[in-house]
């Protein structure tokens, strides 16, 4: 009779082939959670001692062994194998090598199903804190930059056509708002992540008199799952995370798209620092916005991580299914991608130069002040619809004559409408156009200054 050497090999008479073993193994990626797994085991054994399920000296031996494994892990001295399938079985087998058969008592009243869920909650909780911090750091750079550019004018766009002049700070503060919503979503995500599944065991709870609240407290969780089936089969907290990551990356990607566009020869609104640009191997003149393109591109893989897990989950009956093993790589990938993208984006934004002269030129050589003229006429009593028509015709005439509204003579203006006086030129000035838009949330300088002050206070 062929033997099976797996930790679970008792009821087996044969081994899977190496190929099958390797197909089923997750150790090549779940070793990322080695520290969390040891942390979870330490809390579990502390609970087993606290409740008297294990004798004090046995629990102490296991605890000491786990501490040794922690030290070895930190020193890069733990060696994992495919034969031991995943991080949980690998660490149990390493613990056995360390302290002998008493290691076998650690798994009392526990299953790999609640163990892996615990590891993932710990891992994600930790990284959610990092990501929240990184979002705040980026917001600080956005607000700082906005503060320096309250008076910098730029064309505001709709349909990628010059629409109305705005302040560059106003543009930046829109991204501050988006990032704030990202922050709020990740913070809410923490609520569902900060919950202990430990003690759900395989699916139904356990006959041992465990204390789930005690182990949860050891791990710093503020809450425990109330249903053991849900505890081992819930991946909503990861789906929420991936969805939040997808939205954050979409925001960064839009921002990157504008940076890439505005850094072109055609726009020349800004220039990236050399430290965030790359050259070409053939064209000596090139300075490419690779980092912005890469962040835009990485948005695709994070969407993929979300779609991947949604699809894995859609047909799964309660409770644990091996399909769940497919939940990890996407989560790790999204964590790494988002942390790196936030870090690179922050540096790139912080160091780019805004070409204020070019932006100013763009706002004074266009028709984005046409609304001002229509508003001017409307404020003097002409129905807005009529004013709109009149200005539209004037714009067309100007285009044909290769000039802008500011170049039209007062005589021509007065021929157009006797309502127009010399103060029209003041109204047409883009700076006036921006300054006067002081409706709540508008681009007016006073509004922006208020928004920046509020953001600064919130970021404290
Ligand atoms: N490697 C497994 C996973 O990632 C751990 C849980 C295994 N549980 C089981 N009943 N086979 O999902």
Automatic annotation (TrEMBL):
It is found in: Cytoplasm. The keyword Transferase does not apply. InterPro entries: Arg_succ_lyase_C, Argininosuccinate_lyase, Fumarase/histidase_N, Fumarate_lyase_CS, Fumarate_lyase_fam, Fumarate_lyase_N, L-Aspartase-like. It holds the Pfam family Lyase_1. It comes from Loigolactobacillus coryniformis subsp. torquens DSM 20004 = KCTC 3535. Belongs to the lyase 1 family. Argininosuccinate lyase subfamily. Coiled coil: none annotated. Keywords: Amino-acid biosynthesis, Arginine biosynthesis, Cytoplasm, Lyase. It catalyses: 2-(N(omega)-L-arginino)succinate = fumarate + L-arginine. Pathway: Amino-acid biosynthesis; L-arginine biosynthesis; L-arginine from L-ornithine and carbamoyl phosphate: step 3/3. PROSITE patterns: FUMARATE_LYASES (PS00163). GO terms for cellular component: cytosol. Its EC number is 4.3.2.1. It comes from the Bacteria. This is Argininosuccinate lyase. GO terms for biological process: L-arginine biosynthetic process via ornithine. One of its GO terms (molecular function) is argininosuccinate lyase activity. Its main location: cytoplasm.
């Amino acid at each position: 009779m062929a033997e099976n050497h797996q930790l679970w090999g008792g009821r087996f008479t044969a081994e899977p082939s190496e190929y099958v073993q390797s197909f089923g193994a997750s150790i090549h990626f779940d070793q990322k959670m080695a520290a969390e797994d040891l942390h979870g085991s330490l809390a579990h054994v502390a609970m087993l001692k606290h409740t008297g399920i294990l004798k004090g000296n046995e629990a102490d031996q296991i605890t000491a062994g786990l501490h040794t494994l922690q030290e070895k892990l930190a020193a890069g001295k733990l060696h994992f194998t495919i034969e031991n399938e995943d991080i949980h079985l690998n660490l149990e087998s390493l613990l056995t090598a360390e302290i002998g058969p008493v290691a076998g008592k650690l798994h009392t009243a526990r299953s790999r199903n609640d163990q892996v869920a615990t590891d993932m909650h710990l891992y994600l909780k930790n990284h959610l804190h990092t990501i929240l911090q990184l979002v705040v750091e980026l917001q600080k750079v956005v607000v700082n930059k906005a503060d320096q550019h309250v008076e910098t004018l730029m064309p505001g766009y709709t349909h990628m056509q010059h629409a109305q002049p705005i302040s560059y700070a106003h543009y930046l503060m829109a991204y501050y708002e988006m990032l704030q919503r990202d922050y709020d979503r990740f913070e809410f995500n923490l609520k569902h992540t900060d919950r202990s599944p430990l003690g759900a065991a395989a699916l139904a709870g356990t006959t041992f008199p465990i204390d789930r609240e005690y182990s949860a407290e050891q791990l710093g969780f503020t809450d425990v799952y109330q249903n053991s089936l849900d505890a081992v089969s819930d991946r909503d907290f990861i789906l929420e995370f991936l969805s939040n990551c997808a939205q954050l990356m979409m925001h960064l990607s839009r921002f990157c798209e504008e940076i890439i566009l505005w850094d072109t020869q055609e726009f020349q609104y800004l220039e990236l620092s050399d430290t965030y640009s790359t050259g070409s191997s053939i064209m000596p003149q090139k300075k490419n916005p690779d980092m912005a393109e890469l962040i835009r591109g990485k948005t695709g893989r994070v969407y993929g991580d979300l779609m991947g897990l949604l699809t894995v989950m859609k047909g799964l009956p309660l409770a644990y299914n091996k399909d769940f093993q497919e939940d990890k790589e996407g989560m790790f990938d999204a964590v790494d991608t988002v942390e790196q993208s936030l870090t690179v984006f922050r540096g790139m934004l912080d160091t780019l130069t805004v070409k204020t002269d070019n932006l100013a030129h763009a706002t004074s050589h266009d028709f984005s002040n046409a609304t001002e003229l229509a508003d001017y006429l409307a404020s003097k009593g002409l129905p807005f619809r009529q004013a709109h028509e009149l200005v539209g015709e004037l714009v067309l005439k100007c285009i044909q004559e290769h000039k802008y509204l500011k170049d039209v003579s007062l005589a021509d203006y007065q021929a157009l409408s006797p309502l127009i006086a010399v103060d029209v030129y003041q109204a047409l000035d883009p700076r006036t156009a921006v300054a006067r838009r002081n409706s709540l949330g508008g681009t007016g300088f006073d509004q922006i200054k208020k928004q920046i002050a509020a953001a600064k206070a919130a970021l404290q």
